[in-house]
Amino acid sequence: MVDSEQEDEETVRDAVESARSGAPAVGAVVRDRFSSDEIFQRIIAAADEEVTSSSRELFFSALAGGFAITITFLLYSSMSATMDGDPLLSVLLYPLGFIYIIIGGYQLYTENTLPPVALTLERLASIPELLRHWLIVLSGNFAGGAIGAVALTWGDVFSPEAKRAALSHAEHGIETPVASLFAKAVFAGLIVAGVVWVVYASRDTISRLVVIYLAFLAIPLGDLFHVVVSFTELVYLVLAGDVGLSIGITQFVGPVLLGNTVGGVVLVTVVNYFQTSERRLESARFEGVDRQLSIREWLFGTLVGRSYVSMIDTSEAVVDDDTYRILVPIGNPRTESEIVNLACILASERPSAVIHAVHIVQTPPRASMSYDHNQRERIITESNELMESVREIVDSYDVSYESSTVVSHRSFQEVFTTTERERADLVVMGWGTDRPWGDARAERPIDELTSRLPCDFLVLKDRGFDASKILLPTAGGPDSVLGAEVARACRSVLGSTITVLHVVDSPNEHESGEQFLAEWAADNDLGDAELVVDDSGDVGDAICRESREHSLVIVGATEKGLLSRLVTESLHFDVLNEVDCSVVLAERPDSRTIFERLFGD
């Protein structure tokens, strides 16, 4: 009886849940395409990769893209000659160069330069950052196109008929009135912007291939102009014909460039951008307007503050008070406990000190990352779990503690962004190939090199942190004073013994060296330290000899800026490579000029 009732209920349920046509009447619909908001998020993700790429990476990718356009010019001219100028058959292979570029991931002005526009519209990247990206890609494309044109001209690639067709294509562009060129280029820009939107809406390569082919086939069929193709044609005409480059730029390439840019930006701005919902900003950067650039930052970029907003940043700006704030950037919370210990030692000597540990997660190059709220929460939760070990260390020192998480493509730059926002007085960080900022040369920390440091910096090269026996080389200067502060804190908290080393050029200077060292030690509250004067004249060898009896060396950045060494990899000088113990490098802001900060004293 019970079984019969259950069967009746299931029959009724099936009847309710099915329409007369047999289609389900309830349940959720699984869409087979992305919504406009989802497409926008994919474009935002691509834009992150674009604007955070190094200048070198962008330029050489654009160089390859510009050279690939040579394929389009070659096939267009050859097919025109072979097909006797048939308007349809001559252009069938025109899109091939663009297919190589887009499917292959090369940089192309109009195609790769449009996604960052969306990032800029959301005030997540500044206008100067956008223009920098445009300029690098355009320069690379033009250089690649010029190389291709030279190869076609002097490599005897074209047949006589194809050469005439190539010259005819270039001459057609110059002969077209400027107003008409601009209008045609605007429509070409609209087509390319549409390709960007549809390509990110596609779920498979075949769909992308079809869209790219048909869209770029429309350019020659509609007698439209693309700026990189136009520049390649112009260079070929200059080399193989009798047209001046300046005339071609002003009467041909310039109007096309302006039209492509206007057409692409208009479509991204007016059509695609505003058809997305207001929720796009929340999912694009998780924190909405709280994470946007200010209007001044948006207009002027790094001249007045930030030029880019990282993907996740849970830190908050703080008021300027009497708190001594120590920032500790951490790449891997499981392995960087010694950095935290050093920061805690320093903080315990200051009653108002607060340690702010920031977990910096660098996203891999070309890594795809969805920008939904759930992923944000998952990343932050996992980061908080990893940072619990850091909290336990800080709690053992009874020091105030804060933490945050930053996810970004350029971790080294985020150290300075967070430092300024948190108004840090001291940054304590580790250095090594296992740190996400160990590849800082791939980023653009120009601001940190051409301006004064925002605060004191300590960088630990950890080989098993042991501060029981400290060696402190000094030649005077603010960096050595900072090193002395670190040594005193270790002496107070750990009972460390301290040896202060001063190197002079010859035995004749030994006595004056002793006098200098005694005065310096007294001024820095190290009168009870062991004072050693080395008269060999070789600072590196002297440090190496003395370090054999010590567990930690604290070196001031007296000869060349610490950050300059970090970025250029010249940080790995002989002392770091030859000593067996841990090394702390200290740098305090000083009055060195821009030239000295870039190239050393």
From TrEMBL:
Keyword presence, Transmembrane: yes
InterPro entries from the UniProt entry: Aquaporin-like (IPR023271), For/NO2_transpt (IPR000292), UspA (IPR006016)
Coiled coil: none
Main location: membrane
GO MF terms held by the record: formate transmembrane transporter activity
Superkingdom as given in the UniProt entry: Archaea
Every UspA domain range: 325-461, 469-585
Keywords, comma-separated and alphabetical: Membrane, Transmembrane, Transmembrane helix
Pfam family, one: Form_Nir_trans
UniProt-annotated location(s): Membrane
Membrane topology: Multi-pass membrane protein
Protein name: Formate/nitrite transporter FocA, FNT family
Upper taxonomic lineage: Archaea, Methanobacteriati, Methanobacteriota, Stenosarchaea group, Halobacteria
